[in-house]
Fold these 3 entries.
Entry 1:
Amino acid sequence: MSELQRMPPEEVVERLRVALPEGALEEARIKEPIYALVRVRRDAWRKALETAKELGFFHVTTISGIDTGDGIEVAYHLRRDVTMEGKSYGGATHLRLSTKVPYDDAKLPTATDLYPSAGLYEREVQDLLGVRFEGHPEPERLVLPEIWPEGMHPLLKRHSLEEVLETIRKVEEELAKRKRAGGAP
Amino acid sequence: MSAPTTMEVPVGPQHPALKEPIRLTLYIDGEYVVRVKPRIGYVHRAIEKAFEQRNYIQNLYLAERVCGICSHSHIFCYSQCLDRLLEKPAPPRGEYIRLIVAELERIHSHLLWLGVAFHEIGFDTLWYYVWRDREVVMDLLELVSGNRVNYAMSTVGGARRDIDNLKADKIRKGMNVLEERTKYYLDVCIKDIVSGTSVRRRTEGVAILKTRDAIELGAVGPTARASNVKRDIRADDKYSAYAECWERSGVDVIVWETCDLWARVAVRVLEVIQSIQLIRDALDHMPSGPYRHPLPPVLRIPENEAISMVEAPRGELIHHIRSDGTDRPYRHKVRSPTLGNILPVCKMLEGVYIADVPIAFAGIDPCISCTDRVLHLIDVGRREPRDLGVFNIFELRHWARKRCGGSR
């Protein structure tokens, strides 16, 4: 059956190149036999995700946020392994689709309408790197405690380990104080 | 159902399924769960920040300690990622040893889960049986690695220790014992020869996750396969020695159509048998030659990026590393399989009885990290949301038995 074929990563890159506006593909590399590493311009981000879904990338493995020194790169790891009916393509293709946002305007439209499974991972990136996902249905904290200071995102390179540890100590003290006072933790 | 008739039940952070902290807020209507809201992070150990502070060799030890049960999966995935960053594959014998330990680990993890599952449904005799048999595989892991928990069997460029013929024979003998025992569990769980207090009657139709939901919510591992999703990294990516062993041993991805808890039991029992086949095949076809490349005293990796995925006992595991020419990773991202299964488990809890929550939640084999014992119930079935207080696991189990009329 022709539709249950593994898609080579070269084809994925090619299809993205065709679907996106000219010059929107900032970087495209092929790694190993199954990995396509693609970075797109921020204005083409939404279109790139939509194209990926059309190509059959239904699974979000995770989202890695990377503080590159000149901005934050948000990388969605998408996989094309099964059809919506759960049938296997007989081999997976992995697409690392990323885009870069500047520190002072760290936000992206949410992908949860296309990929409901991205919900938790987006919240994780929001906590640890401070990228806001606009339109997220549940933009609450996921891994950091509620009383964690605003603007302190531990995985940003500008926060040293000592600074993070100091914040953890303060948060723990605060929690202990609240507990002693008899309130909710 | 009329308007606000739900009540809110916070389950956890200390809660009744497994011994790890996660909070699930259950919105219930009478005895049924209507909606679930998860909250994690209670045991977030900032391992990704820690990875950035240590060099690649030190990170081998740290990666292994991300998880206590699937420790080898993490070090396997991490060392495979380093091999890819260095663009120098491990020697074939090293890959075979990695595979054998990974499959031994899968057996131990699945048997551990089976025991927990039997315990959660109140079938403690079978729990004792399974955990007794699990000792066979634990002894084998100790034989090949010297350890019961963190095996330290994988490293950059291959395996750390060899599996010689003497050890191979012992593993083969152990596999014979395990195969016989697992077939017995297969009879108990699937073929239903033990009547009365049967596993099937207790688990069939509980906590259903439909195929489409499983795909949309990103279920991974046995949880996805039990929902009839043919997703298995070993078959899809054919990484490491699976490229040869998977086809040759004649195994296929195990899926089950019923999409319920029973399917999750069935898939895991069948996967133990599948792992036994893979181990036998790998032992019979182990290539000769070195099992590891020599390691430089200081490992510096030029600017590069690599993604590595393996099928851990609980599902797909990913390590994503970006190197910058120093001896430390610039960024190291890890996603363990349980995070992928949190949204699916919230979906499958919708519509189950409160008393079934522990086993339904345990059904994904969650690995969050330590000590879950109480359940906090809030009734949404009344006009005013009512807090029912905190329940411990024994009360819940008692409740479950009472509801089932003592037959389950």
Entry 2:
Amino acid sequence: MEFYLFAVLALFAGIVYGLIIGIIPAAGATTGLVALFPFIVTLKSVDPYLAVIFIVAVVAASTTGDTFTSVLLGIPGANSSAATMVDGFPLAQQGKATYALSAAVTTSTVNGLFWGSLTFLLLPWYYDFIILPPVQGGVGQAELFMLCLLAFVTVGFVSTKFWGRSLIALAMGVFLALVGTDPVTAEPRFTMGFDFLMGDGNGKGIPMIPVIAGLFAMPEMLLALRNTTLANKRDMSEHKQQLIDGIKISFVEWKLSAKGGLIGAIIGFLPGLGGGMSDWMAYGQTVASNPNEKIPFGKGNIKGVIGPEGSNNSQKASSFIPTVLFGIPGAPFAAVVIGLFSAIGFELTLDSQSIMGDGLFFNSLSFGFLSATLITGIICLYLMRYITMIAYVPYKFYFPILLAFIVWATYTSGFSTYGWENVALLGVFTLFGLAMKNWMFSRPALMIGFILGDKIEMLSYQFFQMFNVGGYPLIKLSEFFTDKPVGSGKIRFALGEGKDLLEHPVFMVTFVLTMFVLVWGWRNRGKVDYA
Amino acid sequence: MKVSKLVKSMAVATGVIFSGTAMSDIILMSPQKPGSGTSVWTEIIAKEFAKAPALNGENVVITYNPGVRDMAGPNKFHKTERFKDNVIMVSHGGNGISYVQENVKYDYTAYDSVCHQNLNIIMGKHVGVNEDEGISHIAGSGMVPEGLAIAMMIGGPYKTTQEYIDIFNDKVTWINGLNGSERHLAFTRGEVTASRANPAQYISKIQPLVDAGKVETWLHHGILDIANGGGTIDDPNYLGKRFEDVFEAKWGVAPSGDLYDAYSMIHSWRDAIQKAMWVNKGNPNTAKYRQACEQMANNPESIKVFHKKIGKYDWIVGEDGNKTIDILMGLIKDKPLQALVKFNQEALGLKSIYKAELVADLADSNSFIVPVRSSGSAGNWFTELLNIN
């Protein structure tokens, strides 16, 4: 009985902390979890299972909470809510903050509960699927490569009417993602001699938080200083009606919400793809599937809020699958969860299979996530009247607080290695963000390039090394550029020939879908009025 | 009682958040992010280390120092942190490899060993795969010994370094870009035919596949024989699978030559100090930390934890740890180092460098490789521009 009492206490502590972390601009679940390291062992001394409940409650609550600043202030609470901001913030500026937020929170909560339940109910059965060979319908490196390409081509849907500039922004994003460590030679690449830009040697060298905060949060904050408040009008009498309308629309548009949820669940389930990708994909599909809207996307279309919010919590939920089963993080936050679990005695990287046999661990995990998702949703809807008031408070009062929080989140994200270096990057990307906003270069397009650039590079290496796609001309091209002969064995002993991919069902479906989206995206480019 | 603990934990949490780690905490500097292999090892060790009576209940705190392929943490330790008496650097095998073949700031000869585990790396391959017909393996700068072992296993005895390079380029698909645990998944799915793992990972990720009859234990690199001043001994966990033994069983003679010497050198640098704890020379707490390690290594409860999570491997404590470094330094000789750099550059595509300052027998040097600066990448044009101007 005592345990259950403390379980509820841990749950609420996690919800409160998660909500605060979610609302702090740019921080999000990852930063909030990193900040827990110094005292998680002390919490463990109370009971390690309570610590599990606390940690997953933080994840669930911060994921819902990060929508608030995105919608109210145009400042993403985390990487995963940047896509929500594109249409959510214009709605708040039109005095429809409650409408946008209640739709976002309801969508997020419903999808979190649905996909969370599915994830935890079916957890013991996922193992067989995730190790399934690609020829039997599994997802291997070739399939991941094609999924990343699919996400990449959704950029067509988030481009502005200045699609040429969107393409430049996309290229810039890809370039920034390639700054770091060359995955083949392990040499620094485009780092200008700065060691900290090498990252951890796995993928991109420029960390995510300074980029997201600099590109999206800081420009909005600085430009908002010109205004006394962020919202144009204040009419709290409409609050109740907006709340009801918001909840209602999230069910009316259930297909959009479900599609977003499905995208989030798939991306979370697949290790190594990460969170930001699913939200932009969900936003892209929302724009694509609604070509003739009265309210343009980027100008406050509620569908642009529902799509990405559908994917938000479902991605977090399904990320627990590879994390718990294999100790392989399904998203950046999950890597920190693995570390925290390890600190409290549950080493997922070593002993995941036997941990699955620990009923109390499993129950703590599912109870923590599902309860926190539900309770956070209710709290958010209940307190929305008060939280939305921030949009009407003179900006000068909270600008210094927001700035301090952003700097803190950026500083903390560098672990014990880099702190002020990340803050310097924040300054650089703030200037970058201001310039892009001013000259209408699509920041979402840059983000898509930045999120996916290094992933596509690495997966393409694997793809072409595993499959003889391109064959002889590719070898000659490689020899021409690298001035190094490629052994014939590289092709002869590849895992398979290009034609073998025809027997990979997931690859083929994704390939066809990618081609379709590419053409459709190009024909429907320039639909979003947001840079 | 729980209420008081909860209140205490909240008070500690509040204090820690606003003050950072307390000055009196013992800090273990992990070179990786939370959740990565060495961080997990550090987390296992920290709990057992903290129980040692010699530490008198002092708090043991882990800091995470990822960056620059795990070199940022050790570099930071060397530059500033080693001068703090309460800081212990944790290093892993990859740091040992980088020390031999790359420009790094850290220097093992400037530190005293607290203790380390003389570990091993074990390789598995899918049942039915004949390496002579071609094999695929995940690439990475920490996989250099595996690349060398595979080339020799396919090539057989009495080959020159160039011949091994040609054989490697012809028959081995070295797949770039798969990191950490992802490679185990790709191996499990059969997307790569061979893989390797440290003892802890092997137990949890590969052994189940061996037990299921899908994978066979191919070989391991052996454990550095510190007592006898060098060479390797068989791993009691995988008897008869030492590289030298497997090679001889296949080819009838023991491996030899410059590339084999390069292999012996680089795998020892990685595996003998695969997980290690260091303090600066002259640290007044060295004796205390060594004593704590000794107590941890002899604590039956801790031993049980290590055996379950890491495998049955001995701890090398104190001066024996320093002796390990002496043995390893003695392995760095001119010809093997040249062979290693050549293999890295021409077979594995790594831009490693010849570090003349490490070579024990430089007097016999007959260099045929022009040293390559590790900073010679396109990324350094900005620094060079600043220097020129």
Entry 3:
Amino acid sequence: MTEVSGLTFHPREGWIGNDPRQPMRLSRRGFLAAAAATGLAGVAGCSSKGGSGASATTTSTAPLALPRPDNPVTWPLYSSNKAIADNLTPEKNATLKVYNWVAYINQKDLDAFGKKYNCKVELTTFNTMTEAISKLRSGQFNFDVFVPTVDVLGQLVAGKIIQPLNHTYIPNISQAWTEFTNPFYDQAWQYTVPYTIYTTGLAWRKDHVPEDPSTMANPWAFPWQAKYKGKVAVLDDYRESMSLGLMKSGFFDLNTSDTSQLAAATNTLLDLDKLVNLHIDNNDYSNVPSGQIWIHYAWSGDMAAAAGYMPKGTPVDVIGYWFPTDGKGPVGNDTMTVLSGGKNPVLAHLFLNYMMDLPNVLENISYNGYMQPINGVTPDALVQQGLLPPSLTSTVVLPSYFDNGLRELQLAPSVDAEWQQSWLRVSGGV
Amino acid sequence: MPNGSSPGYGSAAASERRLIVARGDLTKGWAARAQNRWVWAGFAMPGIIWLVLLFVIPFYAVLAIAGGQLNAIFESPVPIWNPLNWTGANFAAVFHDLIGQGAFVGPIFVRTLVYVAVASILSLVIAYPAAYFVTRFAGKRKVMFLALLVAPFWISYMMRMLAWIDLLQTNGYVNRVLVDVHLVGQPVNWLGGKSVTVILGLVYGYIPYLILVLYAGLDRIDQRLLEAGRDLGLNRVRTFLRITLPLSRQTILTGMLITVLPMVGDYFTNQMLSGSESTSMIGNVIDSQLNTTSQEAQGAALSLLLLAFLLIPMLYYVFQTRKASETAA
Amino acid sequence: MTVITRPETPEIPVVDAAPPPGSPPPAPTARRWQPPWRNPWRRPWILEGFTWIYLIWSILPIGLAVLFSFNDGKSQSVWQGFSTRWYWGDPVNSVFHNPLLRNAVEQTIRLSLLTTVIAVPLGVAFAIGINRWRTKTSATFNFIMVFSYVIPELIFGVAMFFLFTQFFKFIHLGTMAEVLGLVTWNFSWPAIIVLARLVSIGNSYEEAAADLGASRLQSIRRVLIPLLAPAIFASAVLVFASVVDDFVVVDLLSSTSNTQPMSVIIYANTHGGNGGPALNALATLMLILSFVVAIVGVIVYRWMTRGERGSSGQEAMTSIAGM
């Protein structure tokens, strides 16, 4: 399937990308994101509310934890799934298998790692998290490294798909922001290290749209302007776009199960539909630079990479990106894990370590545009290295955003179904 | 297998056999011998088994999903294989979305029917004269015209849509021409969620199939009938109205069915040419539901409802084809 | 079918009685003038013009897309010079160098070949069997087969999707599922075409062979199959092209990016936006593939039916188009 309105609100969800491998040029293809309810069911045997999915449900099992910033989770460690021992030598004549989203890691980094540790590195890609999880659960594959989003971690841990990390192999964690040594979704970083971080904000073409969200009383209402009919787009991702509806209506719990809030969000998005013939796609990285769309609810990394997509003669500073300065907007991050079914766990650990080293991180950012929470990655550093146009420093994700930011996290299945139903209503299936 | 050295090769039996075959009666004589029957049945068996496994059973799977439940943890569909245990929950949810309060699928369905109606009538209006011209007046150039008519049939649908997307960009050729001849003041945002674009896209996409069917049908009309009409004093328009049109009625109907049926399930035209909710079709809803784990069962239910809706024209077509092939025999 | 044309004769000659010998020829009498639109044999300018406009509208956009696939730049409307960079020149984005696009081409060819090789024998055998084995069962399956032809592809795709995700779970979504789905979807082409041909051939040839002492197997192999060869071939060509173009079934049954053929890649990369000129190159390749197959098909078909009554280029083309 090319489209998965299922699992995660991930910039690569449902991506059918090709892969140009040029600095600042991302062959992002629109992915058709969305998340599906994954295994972290909070409530067992929940019944539906009127108007949502089918009401008949089957038997329940023990609930899995729903990590939240105010409800941090320490994942259990299993005796049958232990971390590797200390001081092992890296495997010889090995092929490290990395399983990542499409076009989300720089081949140069992979090649350099292979040279350094004298191994081959093989990258396999996936387009949707559901696809990835089902492949991993089938047990037919033996990948070593996996890049999951935060919301599927419970499933991966419970299914013993990922193994706990041996921290002695990953000293570069000191280069990462300190919060990631004890994130709420994986206390004491037992299973994960951080990969990319991103925000979702409003991108617009300054040359066509004189208004600026930062001057508006309700900046999230920026897209609701009838004069830009046909030129407004939101992401094809049910969590992200429904969140836009929620925020515009003044609700900032992006994991809400309150049906009246969801209804308000739905209605305001339906108004947007009517007002501007709302376009729904994940091509923000190319549509805004090309001028096809003038106002887009977009991902920070895609906009940071916009310079590579500008047509000849149009400077990149016509693109604006707004994210609330107080950080009260959607933020997210990806993680990197070691799979228990892999044949090269030592190399896998070394790879995780390698991808947190600043020079390699900068190399990666030059390829996919997405920031990583490593200490040297500051707006100035990025601008200086030519990885970020000065006009787009607003796409940078600051540590403070993680303190105040709104995270879109795992929902209980019935709540998730409500969200998906609302999105179907808004999108009409498109 | 018998190799022909069967009793009855003597002249009396042989001539009787020939008589039977000449009468076209295949149920007697050598064709009906027990072994013969099984030979032909053997030929058909692989196809029959294939159809059962991969055509009949899938629909049962769809029914089992549509009448099934949802897994509480994953909200994924759980099929119920026993017909006695089928639940109506998914169908109820779909009906609620179709015609209940706050129904949003109902308007989409109506819009689909409107688009399909407009697009198919437009297609007919365009295709019929072209096919008529080529069959009747093309003369020596008939083969060339036919090749040109058939060509889009061989060009993939995706490519034809892609070609239009290129042309309909804000700075594409269509806008350039329109602005240059001052038909519009500024470039029109064709790809920004316009019904017109989607309808024209549907027309462009499906018209080659219609034109081929019309060509085949019109070609079969005996020229001599038209000549006779001409001899009896009918002018061109009258010939058309009183001879050609009635004779091509069946063809038009078949052609319309071949166009309308696929169009109703179309979702990619809208996705490619518009990408907006204001032009979405029922196919988009089903496709989206299939790709959302918690809505797969509803997608199954909705597609069954769509199938039920289209069943009558489909059966009509099937019976027509069978009748036509039998009369041709 | 003959097309009878008459010469343009707008004037109605008036014939007088023969003039008396010796006298000068009589002056021609006035002809009754008829307005041009009353002439039943005039050329149908309006219809012809309309047809040409239709053909231009039908083919020009594709011509432009093909043209711009050779554009030396990214624009779809500004010609920047001829180059083959999108095919193999560009080291990153061209079809040849981009593994995603290259895999798509391979997958399309792989699916087309596999489907044709399976669907055609299956459909031909089915047609022969159904035609000869006249019972209620066979009539039912004939009905089911035509039903599979007329059902909207989305509904069929939905059924296939559930089949492979719920019932035959051991067949995961991917190339195998795609081939099985495509064969079922295209099974009706060879079945219907060969059935039609069988009906028009009748039993007489086989009867004659039996009279001459051929066994069943021999008569099938040496009489029936060669007679059916053009139809079998035409249906193979049709199935091949149909699979190259197919979208819905493969979209629903594909799993990862390397099981996605060209049609899915084009779709995925163009929703609501412009996917770039490499897609034009990809689509042009698809077009060339189909056309080559079609042209080869017409030529071979004509060669196969060269002795037959009524064979011509026109008949070849209509058969290859499935009519």
